[in-house]
């Protein structure tokens, strides 16, 4: 029977417990241990059953238990302390408030996905987790960010395995009323909405849900509203789902609708209007068009509005390969803009010109979202030093005549939000050394080059910490593996062997990420006999935990998953290597701390950054990685290993995989496992290994923080963008647009008549005198 309408019933909290609702609705609980501990104490069993989700917990606690807590003075004291701490966090001055006054009043940050917590499943992988960490770090620093995204009613898919190891996708239905979000409402109590015009006189309506991420509001647009027809209701159905038109509508809603949502939020709350708009990847690029349309409605012409919009826009690319960028057919885009659709006052040809690949090597009939993002932003960046180089090369066609190293794309290396990813046990060890408040500041604000206090932690404590975290992972893996085999159809009687899977005293390697081909999930299987020898070595065995999702449309990726699963199903090695389905934030928070080695073996240089290794490093896990992304930038032999690569132009791909897999086996056999298992003299501990853990924490820890990353964005990109935005008023925008127009018109008439060189005085080299002729006559130029 089809449900006519769905209702969510929740108990009313007694008055003394009302602060619990505020705590549950602010997602700071997802990275604040004291808040989570408070919710756990409400009902430990239901807390576990809820997956650590306070909203679900409060919806399931019996009224009798709530009545008891309402008179429990000890609990109420704890509640008051945690609620007071949240209030101080939300209202007190933080890093940003201590900076110079010229910083932007607000920044709007747009992303197609946000990974804040497993309780709000609106992410697929690294891009979303990075966006979530950016918001959390901005909150910790007091940066006045407004996040903008979509609310997907099915989120990303849940992954299970068939009996033969083939990935299967399931799309749960998410009820926003059961999520930690609230509707943004007008003063009269009606839901606030935005609308887009569609071809044929139709309209796409969307409500605005608000997730409060500490101090940062996250606006999420939802098209599943009664005002829409069935097709439009499904626009925000799935993350990265549907065909080209479906994706185009999602990205129009994110960009154009997102700007309108920001304007609505600021109108309703009094929040300062953003001076800077940050586009996290090309999906939200249409936001620039909406802002141009706003200025055109105020009397500016298109070219002047473009200059004004560019001044305050930042664009971040995460894509190292053209195939990873959204591109749409020219005619599809044209149909959705102009007089009969959205932005009717803007000439469709001007819209198309912003995104067309009108450069050597481009496809002139395709509209490229990253190209539009770059053309609409005065400031652009990659997400590691190496990725900045790759991006300058990849997009050099947009700046003809420039050498690749002169292309104006800089880099800000990604970071990760330490309070989210550091295990409580690791934090407590640090807090014992320097105190809780200093430890919290070190993980959030950062600013120091090294964490010297790590040097004072005794070897025995570090080794016991690592062993305890490994033991927790073993327990977690067995539970997840048992659940996976039941989903694959196995009976309880078949699963006794799982009690012997993994060993808390064996060197543990983690490999978990999305499964596109370039990340090479199965490189470890290149020589299976050699891998088996590593897994089953009598004195120095290794064990491997693998997880990852292939895109639903990527059968090649699914075959890689199946190949790995079938190897892990082999009774000879299944106690030493496991594949865990449904990789997500909940699993990751156990996986990173519990591993000794984090393995990363992409095809260099196709990893833009690769932040999973950063999260592992913050927990004292050592990296074993190809020199790609962030590892290329910060690798030192003191705290990890670099897998040699064979990335010469003429190397056959199969031969390259053979070479690099052999290098991986060599490292594991000759350097990694001996370091882990060799024991020192009197201590009986692996001294060299512990020292590498210590170096990882003290030297890498401060570098990989999202706090460091966001401070770089503020100082290097947001502040200059805000200053440019303020200087680019209507008159200045017109003047700049007119000057560019004159230069472009006259440029074909500019010629170099002659060049004379002469020896320069002193050691400075040569002097060049050139006669340059243009529309205004000949002039001499000197360099």
From TrEMBL:
Kindly name one Pfam family recorded for this protein.
Phosphorylase
Task: Give the E.C. number(s).
Answer: 2.4.1.1
Q: Name the catalysed reactions.
A: [(1->4)-alpha-D-glucosyl](n) + phosphate = [(1->4)-alpha-D-glucosyl](n-1) + alpha-D-glucose 1-phosphate
The record's listing under Gene3D superfamilies reads: Glycogen Phosphorylase B (3.40.50.2000)
Which cofactors does the annotated protein need, by name?
Answer: pyridoxal 5'-phosphate
Keyword entries, A-Z? Allosteric enzyme, Carbohydrate metabolism, Glycosyltransferase, Pyridoxal phosphate, Transferase
Q: Which residues form the DUF3417 domain?
A: 13-120
Which PROSITE patterns does this one have?
PHOSPHORYLASE (PS00102)
- Indicate whether DNA-binding appears among the record's keywords: no
Q: Does the keyword Nucleotide-binding apply?
A: no
GO molecular function per UniProt: 1,4-alpha-oligoglucan phosphorylase activity
- Which PANTHER family does this entry report, sorted A to Z? GLYCOGEN PHOSPHORYLASE
Q: Give the protein's function.
A: Phosphorylase is an important allosteric enzyme in carbohydrate metabolism. Enzymes from different sources differ in their regulatory mechanisms and in their natural substrates. However, all known phosphorylases share catalytic and structural properties.
Q: Which family does it belong to?
A: Belongs to the glycogen phosphorylase family.
**What is this protein called in UniProt?**
glycogen phosphorylase
Upper lineage is: Bacteria, Bacillati, Actinomycetota, Actinomycetes, Kitasatosporales
């Amino acid at each position: 029977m089809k449900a006519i309408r769905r209702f969510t019933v929740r108990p009313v909290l007694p008055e003394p417990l009302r602060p619990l609702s505020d705590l549950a609705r602010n997602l700071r609980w997802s990275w604040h241990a004291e808040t989570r501990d408070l919710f756990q104490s409400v009902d430990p069993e239901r807390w576990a059953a809820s997956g650590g989700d306070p909203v679900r917990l409060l919806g399931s606690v019996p009224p009798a238990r709530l009545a008891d807590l309402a008179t429990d003075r000890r609990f109420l004291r704890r509640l008051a302390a945690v609620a007071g701490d949240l209030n101080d966090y939300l209202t007190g001055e933080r890093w940003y408030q201590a900076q110079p006054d010229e910083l932007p009043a607000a920044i709007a940050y747009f992303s197609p996905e946000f990974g804040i917590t497993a309780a709000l499943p609106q992410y697929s992988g690294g891009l979303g987790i990075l966006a979530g960490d950016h918001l959390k770090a901005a909150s910790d620093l007091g940066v006045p960010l407004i996040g903008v995204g979509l609310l997907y009613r099915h989120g990303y898919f849940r992954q299970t395995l068939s009996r033969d190891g083939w990935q299967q996708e399931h799309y749960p239905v998410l009820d926003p009323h059961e999520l930690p979000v609230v509707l943004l409402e007008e003063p009269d109590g009606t839901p606030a909405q935005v609308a887009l015009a569609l071809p044929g006189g139709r309209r796409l309506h969307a409500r605005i849900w608000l997730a409060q991420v500490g101090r940062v509001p996250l606006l999420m647009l939802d098209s599943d509203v009664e005002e829409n027809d069935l097709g439009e209701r499904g626009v925000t159905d799935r993350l990265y789902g549907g065909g080209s038109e479906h994706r185009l509508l999602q990205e129009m809603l994110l960009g154009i609708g997102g700007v309108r949502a920001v304007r609505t939020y600021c109108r309703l709350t009094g929040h300062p209007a953003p001076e800077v708009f940050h586009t996290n990847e090309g999906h939200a690029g249409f936001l620039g068009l909406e802002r141009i349309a706003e200025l055109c409605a105020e009397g500016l012409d298109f070219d002047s509005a473009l200059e004004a919009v560019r001044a305050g826009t930042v664009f971040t690319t995460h894509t190292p390969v053209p195939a990873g960028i959204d591109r749409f057919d020219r005619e599809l885009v044209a149909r959705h803009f102009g007089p009969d659709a959205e932005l009717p006052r803007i000439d469709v040809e001007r819209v198309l010109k912003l995104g067309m690949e009108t450069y050597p090597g481009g496809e002139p009939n395709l509209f490229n979202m990253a190209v539009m993002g770059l053309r609409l932003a005065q400031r652009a960046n990659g997400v590691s030093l190496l990725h900045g180089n790759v991006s300058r090369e990849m997009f050099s066609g947009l700046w003809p005549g420039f050498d690749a190293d002169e292309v104006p794309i800089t880099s800000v290396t990604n970071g990760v939000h330490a309070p989210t990813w550091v295990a409580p046990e690791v934090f407590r060890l640090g807090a014992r050394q320097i105190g809780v408040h200093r430890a919290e500041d070190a993980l959030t604000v950062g600013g120091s080059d090294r964490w010297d206090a790590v040097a004072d932690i005794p070897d025995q404590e570090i080794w016991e910490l690592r062993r305890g975290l490994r033991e927790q992972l073993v327990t977690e893996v067995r539970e997840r593996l048992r659940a996976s085999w039941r989903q694959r159809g196995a009976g309880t009687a078949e699963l006794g062997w799982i009690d012997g899977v993994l060993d808390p005293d064996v060197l543990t390697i983690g490999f978990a990420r999305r499964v596109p081909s370039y990340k090479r999930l199965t490189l470890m299987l290149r020589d299976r006999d050699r891998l088996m020898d590593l897994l089953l070595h009598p004195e120095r065995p290794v064990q491997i935990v693998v997880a990852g999702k292939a895109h639903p449309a990527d059968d090649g990726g699914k075959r890689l998953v199946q190949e790995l699963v079938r190897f892990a199903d082999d009774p000879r090695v299944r106690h030493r290597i496991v594949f865990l389905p449904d990789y997500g934030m909940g699993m990751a928070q156990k996986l990173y701390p519990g591993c000794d080695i984090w393995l990363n073996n992409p095809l260099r240089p196709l990893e833009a950054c690769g932040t999973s290794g950063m999260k592992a490093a913050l927990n004292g896990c050592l990296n074993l990685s190809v020199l790609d992304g962030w590892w290329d930038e910060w690798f030192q032999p003191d705290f990890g290993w670099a897998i040699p690569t064979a990335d010469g132009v003429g190397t056959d791909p199969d031969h390259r995989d053979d070479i690099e897999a052999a290098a991986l086996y060599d490292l594991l056999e000759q350097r990694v496992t001996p370091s882990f298992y060799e024991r020192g003299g009197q201590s009986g501990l692996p001294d060299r290994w512990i020292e590498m853990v210590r170096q990882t924490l003290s030297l890498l820890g401060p570098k990989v923080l999202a706090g460091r990353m966001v401070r770089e964005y503020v100082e290097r990109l947001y502040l200059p963008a805000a200053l440019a935005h303020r200087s680019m008023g209507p008159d200045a925008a017109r003047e700049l647009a007119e000057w560019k127009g004159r230069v472009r018109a006259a440029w074909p008439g500019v010629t170099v008549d002659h060049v004379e060189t002469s020896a320069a005085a002193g050691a400075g080299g040569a002097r060049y005198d050139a006669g340059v002729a243009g529309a205004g006559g000949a002039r001499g130029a000197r360099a």
